[in-house]
Amino acid sequence: MRAITIAEPGGPDALVLADVPDPVPGAGEVLVEVVASAVNRADVLQRQGFYEPPPDASRYPGLECSGRIAALGPGVTGWAVGDEVCALLVGGGYAEKVAVPVGQLLPVPKGVDLVTAAALPEVTATVWSNVFQIAHLRPAETLLVHGGSSGIGTMAIQLGKAVGARVVTTAGSAQKLAACRDLGADVLVNYREQDFVAELGDHGADVILDVVGAAYLARNVDALAVNGRLVIIGMQGGAKAELNLGRLLAKRGAVIATTLRARPTEEKAAIIAAVREHVWPLIEAGTVRPVVDRTLPLASAPEAHRLMESSEHIGKILLTI
Ligand SMILES: NC(=O)c1ccc[n+]([C@@H]2O[C@H](COP(=O)([O-])OP(=O)(O)OC[C@H]3O[C@@H](n4cnc5c(N)ncnc54)[C@H](OP(=O)(O)O)[C@@H]3O)[C@@H](O)[C@H]2O)c1
């Protein structure tokens, strides 16, 4: 098969389309013939040499895909050759074929085409696990979503609204904030010009989904409501910062940091089952929709990475095989 390989870590041109051996599905896995994959920030870090795939994972980038099941590994039940699926991956999505543990498969939701379905696994699993399973966002609470126009942000805004939360979001331009408003965000904060703590008002945020990390840690703690939960999933603003425990203690606050990729297969399967139960019906009802900036062919993976690094996109960037 052909796959995007990273011979040497570096800039976008380090991504090279090459002939490589086909993956072989192991016990409890299926082989998916990939129709589309999607670009995630983690792929950029992997390409730069800053994010090693876990041991045993495919060395090729790509944390999600959509496609058709081409073969079943030993012991697989409940799925058939030809089924149209999308999947959360630990790597290997930028390829014509990928082996996937069955627990990470999802049916393509009704009303979503097979290519667009590649935009869903990573954002739904990340937002559901962090905002709902870990931070327990409840109706009428306030959710602060940093980077509301990102792939993650566009899903977090919609799911927050779907459960009846008030959603406050930050983005770096008026155009991006307009997209966040169209997705239902109640309060829009241009982080280049405004202070999100002030814009939140007296109550603060019951849950914060943060992709900035160190540079926002102190302000995020200031932004928390009493009993607030800050979940950090990105470190675009650095990894090391000082935490004022006095301020956190006064809020009775929680600071949690997580990564989805490193979780064991069984935990990923539990998250995917919850996504299928809680998020898929919202997508099929049209309450929540995938947001796709653009779709490029797999060979244009370098261009797709340049676009992500420029941060000009809104929503997901897809790669088609
Ligand atoms: N831990 C996990 O399991 C996990 C899983 C998936 C994703 N993530 C993380 O989630 C983040 C989003 O991922 P993605 O794939 O959706 O990437 P993406 O579409 O490229 O989004 C990056 C976002 O970060 C925003 N941002 C950068 N600096 C900011 C700041 N100072 N204040 C507010 N927002 C800021 C950008 O906003 P502007 O463009 O408006 O500047 C942009 O919306 C990444 O950091 C990624 O690593 C983590």
Determine the N-to-C terminus distance.
11 Å
Which class do the helix and strand fractions yield?
Answer: alpha/beta
**Global Rg:** 19 Å
Hetero compounds: NADP nicotinamide-adenine-dinucleotide phosphate
Largest sheet: 7 strands, mixed
Mean pLDDT: 97
- Counting DSSP H or I runs of 4 or more residues, the number of helices is 10
Q: Percent of residues in beta strands?
A: 25-35%
Shape verdict: globular
CATH superfamily of the largest domain: Medium-chain alcohol dehydrogenases, catalytic domain
The name of the CATH architecture of the largest domain is: Alpha-Beta Complex
What percent of residues adopt helix (DSSP H or I)?
Answer: 25-40%
The H-and-E topology, N to C, reads as EEEHEEEEHEHEHEHEHEHEHHEHE
Low-confidence stretches: none
Named CATH topology of the largest domain = Quinone Oxidoreductase, Chain A, domain 1
How many strands appear in the DSSP assignment?
A: 15
User: How many structural domains can be distinguished in the coordinates?
Assistant: 2
* CATH class assignment of the largest domain: Alpha Beta
GO molecular function: NADPH binding; oxidoreductase activity, acting on NAD(P)H
Protein name: Putative NAD(P)H quinone oxidoreductase, PIG3 family
Keywords: NADP, Oxidoreductase
Domain Enoyl reductase (ER): 10-319
Note down, in words, how this protein is organized.
- Keywords: NADP, Oxidoreductase.
- One of its GO terms (molecular function) is NADPH binding.
- Residues 10-319 form the Enoyl reductase (ER) domain.
- With 321 residues, the protein is of the alpha/beta class.
- The strands form 3 sheets. Strands 3, 4, 5, 6, 7, 14 and 15 form a 7-stranded mixed sheet that branches.
- The model has no long low-confidence stretch (mean pLDDT 97).
- It contains 10 helices and 15 strands.
- It has 2 domains: 2-120 and 263-320, Quinone Oxidoreductase, Chain A, domain 1 (Alpha-Beta Complex); 124-257, Rossmann fold, CATH 3.40.50.
- The structure holds NADP nicotinamide-adenine-dinucleotide phosphate.
- NADP nicotinamide-adenine-dinucleotide phosphate binds at residues 40-42, 122, 126, 146-147, 149-153, 170-172, 176, 191, 211-212, 233-234, 236-237, 258-260, 308, 311.
- NADP nicotinamide-adenine-dinucleotide phosphate is lined by residues 40-42, 122, 126, 146-147, 149-153, 170-172, 176, 191, 211-212, 233-234, 236-237, 258-260, 308, 311.
